[in-house]
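input
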Amino acid sequence: MDKVIWFLPLTLISALAGSQATATTQANSNLVRNGSFERMQVGWMFGGEAKILQQPDAPHGQKVLQCRRNSDMARQVVVAEPSTQYAVSLWVRTENVKPVSGSGYAYAAIYEFDFHGNLVAFRDFVQLSGTQGWQRFDATWETHQRTFYFEVRLGLYNADGVAHFDAVQVVQGNKTPQRYEKAPTAKGEVALILHEPNFPQNPASPSPEKLAHWLSLAGYKPQIVSAERFADPAWVEANRSRIGLLVLPNSPNFPLEAHRNLLRLLVDGVDLLTFGGYAFDVPMAKMPAGYKPIRYGQPISATLLNVNPDFETVAPNGNVEGWEISNPQQCFISEQVAKSGKRSAGVSIAGRAGSAIWKTSVSVQAGERLRVSGWVKTEGVKGTGYAFLAYYPFAGDKWVKPRDIAQVRGTSDWQHFVADFVVPYGVDRVEVRFGIYNASGTAFFDDVRVERIELPPCLNTRYGNPQDGLETSPLQLGMFDAHYPLRNAVRLEAKGWVWETKGTQISGYSAVGVLHARARWKPIIFALDRFGRICGTAGAVMHHYAGVFAGSNWVFFGVDNFDLTTLPKFNENVLLPLLKHLRRSVFAHGLKSKFACYRPHEPIEATVNVSNFGGSEFIGQVVFALSELEDESVTKGQKFAEKLVASFKAPVKASSGEIVAVSIRWTDLKLREGLYRITARLLDANGSLVDEMESGFVVWDGQTFTERLNFRYSDNYFWLNNSPNFLLGTDTWANWFHSPSQSDPLFWRQQICMMRDAGLTVFENLQWTPSNYRFSEVDWRKLDAMIWLCHQAGIVYMAGLLIGHDVAVDDATLERQAKFVTEFAERYRNADGLIYYLNGDYQLRPKTPEQTDLRWRTQQN
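output
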């Protein structure tokens, strides 16, 4: 999106370092978490190659955000109030920032969104180029009337160079403090238990009083609150610093009016505990007669925007109130044909095909959701065109994504057409048009309406915008999956606890999570069928270590027909240890080996992060263990035979709010070829287990494949191990190489073995194309491990190279691409279970007049 400074009213003050502010400081606390970047990624989401680095001359602390390449960016979400004044300040420094083409600069900006993620306003308050020393910038603005949250965005737009950012502050009011003030980090000790007796009964909902007892044993101060109290923003704001945990015993039912308070707490790092099934699945709206469930997608309000939708109001001179026509001989009001009332609008074109329309216009605002609807009846409409009903959004005098919602030919009785859409950014009015286009015949139209509708917020990720993936707002809570119910489950298993039903199957949803590469998911309770096979995860925990919900830990249980707290020993063996874990709020994440594949004599290096989001200092140790996995199978029911190779203990100390990296380096191990596991166990000062993680790597010389697949193509067959085969396969993409939860050889091996056990013989990965067509050594080692693991399992690996790339490139680019592919083929020349997938899903982006010619394109194909 093009950036425009001062798009909406904004007051800007730029001051060089050392200058004095003149406005009064607001007492409000900083709404930006980790605005000085001392806590690394906490609170921020990163794009491109933006990163945090040490900077001795930083305006505050020792760390800053650095952006070096075009499109590098960091952003943070702040839950906001509509039509409210806010102030922002930060420090910026630039070095040789130059546009890539046209206009480009380092920027700081505010982007405002409604709950559903629709952009409603944006403004830059910093645009810098060239080389400039540290400067402080201050600005104030009033949020849009539809704003639910805004993002603070920092980065480079259409420019390269170096930009540093530090000491970001946002407060509600007219001025940020002159000295940087960090947002509060410590969690409160109060556990709010939301209990609303007027909600639908849930057999899986625990007793609030029983939960309060166990919460007290874990060190919390439990407090039971009603839906009305929790929906009160003044009450929540007054108690915000005291709240450390929100407990939802009946989590599928949630008060609609409280969703802003809920999200504000979770963004602040408050923890969450849910029972009863698919959390936040049934929003409950307060009505005069009590609470009523609201179905997502069904409007909770609708406001008619256009005048005279039923065409009943007609002036004596024949003018129809609110409507314009293109041709009075062809556009008319009918009093003989109507869907409702006494009149309808008509268009009739006799003889040769032609066009005639009715239209009306309404004023709109960006982000509004509109519903256009109408009834259409036709008589003998023929020709290359049709009778139509359409909407035309306008930004000034330009159309923005117009759409026909009805195209009708021939003779048809009344049909109803309806379409919803979100007003695009920049659009200020919408025209509704109907009539006949490039055809002859007669068409009637009635009840043509334009309505502004309000949909209830979808708090979970059951619904979204279906594109290549399901697009959701960053504030939708990614717990559970509508397509992963628990089926055939009769047994629950957790560490130190087992329970089995007596006849009735366990129902609900598997407790999976949407991680966004910023959280760690851990299973707590597995659900199994009568054969001991895993049906799903009945309970899990997600630790958010970065991003929107950094510091917030979510424990969620998907069982919806049994109250888990009534099951024998569940509270003692499962619930209480979990609550103590939440209360401490210390966990491990990001365990990773330096390389996914090592050569036999290379040192082994690994790092794990320890995050302390609790209120007191943590002192303990990390115990690393390195094991060789001797059994090839990792499918359910068959465990690795492990041989301990080495171990190491490293002390760790993390202050409240701190993230500490703990590393290990083993030398002279002389490991043989195979798959290895690194386990990191986090212990407290008493030696008690706090958390545990595992990761893996492969040892291989990079040349010799001990497992041969003898894969070839001849005589119109694919041959595998000297037998003709009908190949069956599956695919994925670069997520296996980049996702923190998937880019690990242990995960790869498990999935590849499951492919093999399911009868598949080919695994396609679309991979990725690195910058400048050069893989780093870390990248190559990932590919080494992947291809070695596939060979070990007898799976043919199909490597995607240059997938989705433009074929209209210059000779220099073509040469770099050829070198890139050649380097890949040279490295894996000894692999006999490999398919090279070159330039699938290719693009043709014309750059010359010749390339736009259809005949030329046909010749190329």
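quick obs: DSSP finds ten helices and 50 strands in the chain.
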